[in-house]
Write a structure and sequence with these properties.
By secondary structure, this protein is of the alpha/beta class. It has a single domain, classed as Rossmann fold (3-Layer(aba) Sandwich). It has helices spanning 17-31, 55-62, 72-80, 84-88, 114-123, 168-181, 201-216, 228-232; strands spanning 4-9, 35-40, 63-64, 95-96, 100-106, 145-152, 186-187, 191-194. The strands form 2 sheets. Strands 1, 2, 5, 6, 7 and 8 form a 6-stranded parallel β-sheet that branches. Mean pLDDT is 82; it is low at 49-54, 60-75 and 80-96. Residues 3-44, 104-215 form the Flavodoxin-like fold domain. It catalyses: 1-(beta-D-ribofuranosyl)-1,4-dihydronicotinamide + a quinone + H(+) = beta-nicotinamide D-riboside + a quinol. Belongs to the NAD(P)H dehydrogenase (quinone) family. Keywords: Cytoplasm, FAD, Flavoprotein, Metal-binding, Oxidoreductase, Phosphoprotein, Zinc.
Length: 233
């Protein structure tokens, strides 16, 4: 109860399977007494450069402190000018305000959608999420939890060690280890729904039910060990 959750959502269609997973997460975590904030990247039109002003609200949720020297009214203009990364450098000593960061998205070309990667590039900047001497276990967002929940076009068999796509953990290495762990976040086992568009209605219902059940015990889970062995053993 009282935990702050940020869900970054990257799908164009609210009625999609990803949209259903998002809805379940918001409803279940809210029932648990969490304060849930959703950043719907497509709805925010978060694309291109410079960063869109809506990123500001996310940063205000993530960080807050006495070192803030720019008032809220001026932040939008700084965003439009592409100066947001410069501003975050002065926030690195401020306290983080979220406990759990989740991303909900479809897997595109063995990676996250470009719009989600753009969010990562703009928000998880040096001085805010990491520093040259403060990364991985020493990252500036340490002691917070993260989880990637995503769908695939390929089946479980395709993303196995003997499958055409290789072990899904190989795909997760740059996203979980190279971004989340690099910034100090503790990483939970990803939640993967394989090829939902190619299974029966009943199977999709089972996938949604499994997500609901996992969320009920989410806070009791142990993070993965975040070592190369976890990904490549």
């Amino acid at each position: 109860p009282g935990k702050k959750v940020l869900i970054v959502y990257a799908h164009q269609e609210p009625k999609s399977f990803n949209g259903s997973l998002l809805k379940i997460a918001v409803e279940e975590l809210t029932k648990q007494g969490c304060s849930v904030t959703v950043s719907d990247l497509y709805a925010m039109h978060l694309g291109g450069s410079p960063p869109m002003p809506q990123v500001v609200s996310v940063l205000w949720m993530l960080r807050d402190g006495p070192e803030m020297t720019v008032n809220r009214k001026n932040l939008s203009s700084f965003c439009k000018a592409g100066l947001l990364p410069l501003l975050t450098g002065s926030w690195k000593k401020a306290g983080t305000r979220f406990h759990f960061l989740s991303a909900q998205f479809p897997l595109f070309w063995f990676s996250m959608p470009a719009i989600l990667k753009g969010w990562m590039d703009r928000v998880l900047v040096q001085g805010f999420a990491y520093d040259l001497s403060k990364s991985y276990d020493g990252g500036l967002l340490q002691d917070k939890l993260s989880l990637f929940s995503f769908t695939t076009g390929g089946t479980t068999e395709m993303y196995s060690k003997g499958g055409i796509g290789g072990d899904i953990r190989y795909v997760l290495w740059p996203m979980q280890h190279g971004i989340m762990h690099f910034c100090g976040l503790k990483v939970l086992e990803p939640h993967i729904c394989y090829a939902p568009e190619n299974v029966s209605v009943e199977k999709r219902k089972e996938m949604l039910s499994a997500w609901t059940q996992r969320l009920k015990t989410l806070w009791k889970e142990e993070p993965i060990d975040c070592s190369p062995e976890w990904y490549f053993k």
